[in-house]
Amino acid sequence: MSDLVLGTAGHVDHGKTTLVKALTGVDLDRLPEEKARGITIALGFVPLPLPSGRIAGLVDVPGHEKLVRTMVSGASGMDAVMLCVSAVEGVMPQTREHLDVLRLLGVPHLVVAQTMADQVDDELLELAAEELREVLAGTPWPNAQIVATSAVTRRGLPELLAALDALPSSHRELDRPFRLPVDRAFVRKGFGTVITGTAWNGRLKDGAEVELLPGGERARVRGVQVHGQSVAEAHAGSRVALNLTGVEIEEVGRGFWVVAPGSMPDALVIDARYTHLDDAPILVGEPGVVVLHGTREVAGRVVPLGAEGLEPGWSGWVQLHLSEPLPCLPGDRFVVRRASPSLTVGGGAIVDPWAPVARKKRQAEAIVELDRLAAGDKEVFVERMDAAGLTDAECLQRAGVLLGVRLGERRYPVGRVAEMREVLAQTLAERHAAEPLTPGLNRKAVQAGLLKSLDDRAFLAFLDAEAGAGRVVLEGGRVRLPGWVVKLDAAQEAWRKATIAAAEAAGYDGLEAAPERPDRDALVFLIRDRGEIDLVAGRIYAASVLERLSAAVRAWFDGHPTLDPSAFKELTGQSRRTAIPLLEWLDARGVTKRLGEGRVRA
User: Fold this and answer.
1) Domains of the chain, with CATH numbers?
2) pLDDT for 355-396, tens place per residue?
3) Which residues are catalytic?
4) Given its phi and psi angles, is residue 537 left (phi above 0), alpha (psi -120 to 50 degrees) or beta?
């Protein structure tokens, strides 16, 4: 396993591949057209042993300006770059463009190899080195070590290897889900589909299931090689070949990703931090560009947020609107090129590949959100989902931590939950005021307005949480505010007493109507919540009378096996018109059970 992914860069014919051969003994010009023309047109890979025993994974990339896209795919994910500059020609246009690309890709470390040092005298060599220092002064690597080398005489090769060996080891994220950008795919006889690439994150075991993006096709690994050696497991930072089953060669190729299932989105709208190069042309409006990320190239538009266009040196927030999916994650770097004439114009870092489309009226709000994300406030990820929420897995994928408040199976923004809390309290207060004799609302009646956006499981979890915090009280299927007690006013209380007294006096006959003008709310309250009266076939009975009736019937069964209607009429003194409803009431309350025309003890 290499602990350092090291790339080459530099202008065509500045000796990159020759220098790599001198360092490793491997000729990376493997294609016939490369050997014929003397230039590298494809990526080359080889392990490079360093003096300390460390192994660097060396990526040789093409330098021709028409092959910058291939160079980007090789440079993506590098820990360091060995920039090759001819001591004869010095800094060339592609040298500067490669430096721009490396800066945009965030490559952290740089070592400069002055190639062909045997072809110039010491004075010209020093002048070339001085020019290099001036160019590097305006880059992230102003103090990069410059080593004069010659692949012919082997001058400076030990010093160059020592400089490379002094670079810090990469700290690849092995605990993150595996992902690898595919740079080659081919069919090997007897094996099937084989893909190659440099693993960016995680680890992958032979036999594991993987997902192919874009598209989401699934495949299984049935063979893993690292730098040509069969292994049981591949790690981030390694040059990897995978033999895949369940996928045909037509379904995967350069620009695809092999990832742990469900670990990356297929993004079409991306929020990013973007830098327009100092020497790039002014691009007004939402210019059409090509976005390069990993080994993938996608056409799209750059939408600057809070600006009318892209000016030289401009840096700020943009939204990328893409014509095809671009699998990516926050923190990934990208390069933007103009298609015609072909030119690198800028690039930057992806911040949110799940971004909502930022219309003109929402751009100011989007900028505030992105500033918060840049400052480390990852709560923005769940806030942007609003009522949809995020699962735990989605939170971990986007932010690496659990966010917001979990309700049911999803997590919701803290601010939105606070709003829902206010809506619940206000709804209950308003209904308590409008329905003073209703001790609580049905749970479904509360699930309105903002609360309607929650699914049933999340809503019940929200109510349980509010009850646990003492902000509401749950009683059966009803919800009320703490301290809310139903109180009858003076007129209602007088009506209550008169109705109960009259119903008790009426006994088993019941009342056809209340003694005074009925108060519907108070009547419902007495029946439903206080249980002081009940309605049987439209007649009003006092609860005490019905309890007395139940006791009398139970006593009857102590001496009789059955109770027929005539016996019940004799027991209660009721006519059939009132007796039958009372018998049915007893059936419903579980005191009796109908058997033929009579009743037995339930």
Assistant:
1) 4-165 (3.40.50.300), 179-259 (2.40.30.10), 269-377 (2.40.30.10), 392-487 (1.10.10.10), 490-601 (1.10.10.10)
2) 999 999 999 999 999 999 999 999 999 999 988 899 999 999
3) 13, 16-17, 64
4) left
